[in-house]
Amino acid sequence: MLFSSVLLSFVSTVGLAAVVTPRGPAPSSLEARAAAGDRLVFCHFMIGIVGDRTSAADYDDDMRRAKEAGIDAFALNIGVDGYTDQQLNYAYESAARNDMKVFISFDFNWYSPGNAAAVGSKIAQYASKPAQLLVNDRVFASSFAGDGLDVDAVRAAAGTDVFFVPNFHPGQGSLAAVDGAFNWMAWPNDGNNKAPKPGKSLSVADGDNAYLDWLGDKTYMAPISPWFFTHFGPEVSFSKNWVFPGGSLIFDRWNEVLQKGFPMVELITWNDYGESHYIGPLSSPHYDDGNSKWTNDMPHNGWLDLSKPFIAAYKNKDTSVDKYITDDQIIYWYRRTLGSLDCDATDTTAGRPANNDSGNYFQGRPDGWQTLEDAVYVVTLLTEPGTLTIASGDQVVEQEVPAGANLVKVPAAVGKQRFSLSRGGTVVLQDTSLMDISNVCPCGLYNFNAYVGTVPAGFNDPLGEHGLASLTIGLHVTTCSATPSLGTNPPTTATTTATASTTTAGPITTSTTSTTSTSSGTTSAPSPSKTTSEPTQPTSTSEPDLPCNGGTNADGETGNYAGLCSFACSYGYCPPGPCKCTSRGTPGTPPPPSGRDGCPLPGEGDGYKGLCSFACSHGYCPETACQYC
Ligand SMILES: *[C@@H]1O[C@H](CO)[C@@H](O)[C@H](O)[C@H]1NC(C)=O
């Protein structure tokens, strides 16, 4: 045992050779913090998007990367899909061998608050695994929603005194049996799950206060999130289209969290690409529920870099992040078009009705878009003061920035985005973003996701084949293909610098900007270069790049998918969770649109959503799985 764990830690050290070991103060140990139930850092992880993973190894990069950033445990969000247990087993196994912790977060979109036994028995199934997070020596669990759940019955079914911190809501759930509660509202909002409106505006701190008042001395788990944008149109059955104001939220919120010092925080999320609040890599293996339309070429890894020194400070109850910054780094983000750009003619939602039972569907620009600014946000994490130069298109701003973590916000302009830091007249950091701000609608869409970059540049992080599978479905332009198009930066094989963009960030013009300040830390992320590739079935010259033109149910998935997969894959839509591609080449032309959308039968899992939507809308709506909705 000892030998194998030494061996494993050797292997993982090699895997992370590129990572800079933090030189700031050592954080308080997980053991000490978990025993006290204080200063714990979690990150929400969607199991529902990774049904195509085939081994525990598919989780290793996520586990190592999160641990390296200081995240203590992943909150594994589960529904009731057929692959859930398979994936939980992989995740627990990978966590154990990477010295990470995990716990289950029950998603009550799928679980029923009336069925406490199902929740408890699922907890029991994983409770004794080595990677299970214990808090106060008790098995930890959480949820998304779930008010009304009988928590005593959960514990009875679990057979253990679960430390339960569900996402119950003040005034709705009962506090009697819980240990604490988790607040999901990580974004400024209107009190009704949409962006603030005049006269209806709640800050994230307002949510903190509502929970703290309600909880008394029970544990509060506070949310932290960078962004929110979702843009599903009639091409899927779960159409939704809105934003919450992101802006400088992640920087502001981390500073607030350090001041307030909550006992637990949960980052929302690692891999919810559909709502654009992922801080994990695009290359983390997952299938495409349609989100690739706005996530392709849009890495967010800089937000994990940004979080890292704040996590270290938070764990040590430090209210300043300054001494956790050990390397200079610039992190920047912006939207790739200005809010005024009109994409109505080609957008997937503009002028296009879709199912709106959820009340979350809007046509055209996402609901709440007016709350987003046309701005470039730049956070400097500096060991010493410097001069920051930001060139957004033709607009150049130069600004003195102090040591520590600092935010500078400048107006966004169309063109190249360039950043440089100099000291004493010498440039110490400089790069041009791989993503320009453009006046062309990307893939014809209102894409209000954020592009996040860093100087020095991070690793090349393309979506994998599965993560791109639905990109073109429902698009109204033909200029967009399902391939990553950002340059490799740095090149995957070469060692250092070079590549793209070494344009000089021309200083000269200086306008004024406002500065806010705080502190900091850093690290460049390990080099990834991992994409899922399932063994492609040997058709004659089976290049993996060819579209799929035949398939069946994926290994381990129910044969109930077979007909749907066979139909959909033959036309090039072969979602890798439920289906597997068995031949490649030119896909057939699907039957004309039936004008009706399809939904899974009640009780069927997420895996049916895209398939029923695609199949029924083309006239094949098998009654054993789907219905018209
Ligand atoms: C969808 O429902 C919400 C809530 O009722 C409403 O505000 C919105 O306008 C609806 N969307 C469309 C496209 O009708």
SSE layout:
Layout: H1 2-15, H2 30-36, E1 40-46, H3 57-69, E2 73-78, H4 84-97, E3 101-107, H5 116-126, E4 134-135, E5 138-144, H6 151-158, E6 163-165, E7 180-182, H7 204-215, E8 219-224, E9 229-232, E10 240-243, H8 249-260, E11 264-267, H9 292-295, H10 301-315, E12 329-334, E13 375-382, E14 386-392, E15 395-401, E16 404-411, E17 417-423, E18 426-432, E19 451-455, E20 515-517, E21 548-553, H11 562-570, E22 579-584, E23 598-600, H12 607-617, E24 626-628
Parallel strand pairs: 1-2, 1-11, 2-3, 3-5, 5-6, 7-8, 8-11
Antiparallel strand pairs: 4-5, 9-10, 12-13, 12-19, 13-16, 14-15, 14-17, 16-20, 17-18, 21-22, 23-24
Helix pairs in contact: 3-4, 5-6, 8-10, 11-12
The protein binds 2-acetamido-2-deoxy-beta-D-glucopyranose.
2-acetamido-2-deoxy-beta-D-glucopyranose is lined by residues 356, 359, 361-363.
What are the key terms here?
single chain, alpha/beta, 9-stranded mixed β-sheet, disordered N terminus, binds 2-acetamido-2-deoxy-beta-D-glucopyranose
Judged by helices, strands and strand pairing, the structural class is alpha/beta
Bound molecules: 2-acetamido-2-deoxy-beta-D-glucopyranose
Describe the main β-sheet briefly: 9 strands, mixed
The percentage helix is 10-25%
Shape label: globular
Termini Cα gap: 54 Å
Q: What's the Cα radius of gyration?
A: 24 Å
Q: Which percent range describes the beta-strand content? A: 15-25%
Number of strands: 24
Number of helices: 12
Query: Would you tell me the overall average pLDDT?
Result: 87
Biased composition (Low complexity): 487-542
Protein name: Glycoside hydrolase family 71 protein
GO molecular function: glucan endo-1,3-alpha-glucosidase activity
Pfam families: Glyco_hydro_71
